Amino acid sequence: MQNIKFYNGNTMPQLGLGVFRVENDDTAKDAVKHAIVNGYRSIDAALVYGNEEMVGLGIQEGMAEAGIQREDLFITSKLWLDQYGKDNVIKGYQTSIDNLGLDYLDLYLIHWPGTDEALTIDTWKGMEALYEAGKVKNIGVSNFNIEHLEALKNQTSIKPVINQVEFHPYFTQESLRNYLATTDIHMESWSPLMNAEILTDETINAIAEEVGKSAAQVVIRWNIEHGVVTIPKSVTPHRIEENINVFDFSLTEEQVARIDALNQNKRIGPNPLEFNG
C-alpha cells in the first residue's frame, strides 16, 4: 500500500474503503472486516451515513483477525451540516468516535461547505481547536471548491490537509486539482467508479484489456497515477479484494491521457455551491 504525506508530516494510505450507502447492519461490519483482513488500512466513514456503529464493529473484528493495532489504521469521519458552528464541532466529533468505538480519529472533515460562508468559517475554527487540542490527528474538508478554500485561507490559520471531492473520468476537476497541488492540499476522490457507471465505458474497457486488469482497477489506478487518494465502496468480498489489487501495475502516460480525455464535467452528486443538506 502506498501512502501520501500531508504538509504536517503525517501520512495516509492512498487507497481505502468507502462506506456511503451501506446499511448499518452486518453488511457494513462484514465489508469493513473483510477489507482490513485483506490489507486495507483506511476506512472512510461519516456521521450522516448512519452506519458508524457497525463500521466500528467491523474495525474491531478486522483488527483482531488481522492481528493489527489501532495505530495501524487510518479512520476518517465527517461533520454534518446540522452540527456546524464552532461550539458544535466537539459534540459532532465525540458522537462519531463514540459510535465507532474509538478513542480518536485520524482525519476529521467538514462534509460540505454549505451556503453560509460565515458559518463554515466558524465551523472550521472549531476544527482547528479540535486539532490544536490533540483530539484528532488531521483536519480537512470535503466538497470544497476553490472559492471555499480561498475563504478558509483568508480567514483562518490552519489549512486543510485534504479535500475530498467528486472525481472520476467524466469529472476530472483539472482546475481544482491544479489549485490543490499549488497549495499543498491533497485531493481525495469519493465515488471514483461513478456508482459503477464508468465501468461500461469503451475506453476504460479497452485499457483494461491492454493491461490485463478489470475496468474498476484501471479507474482506481488512474486515481493513483494522479496522486489522488481514493476510497472505492464495495460490500462484495471479491470486489473489495480486486479494488486494492492495483499496486502491481501502472498506466502509461498515453493511457492516462486517454482517460483524462473522457472528461465531460459531469457530476453525479450535488453542486457544492448550491447544496445545504
Automatic annotation (TrEMBL):
Residue ranges of domain NADP-dependent oxidoreductase in the record: 15-263
Key words, A-Z: NADP, Oxidoreductase
UniProt xrefs under InterPro entries: AKR (IPR020471), Aldo/ket_reductase_CS (IPR018170), NAD(P)_OxRdtase_dom_sf (IPR036812), NADP_OxRdtase_dom (IPR023210)
Listed Gene3D superfamilies: NADP-dependent oxidoreductase domain
PROSITE patterns: ALDOKETO_REDUCTASE_1, ALDOKETO_REDUCTASE_2, ALDOKETO_REDUCTASE_3
Family of this protein: Belongs to the aldo/keto reductase family.
Entry protein name: Aldo/keto reductase
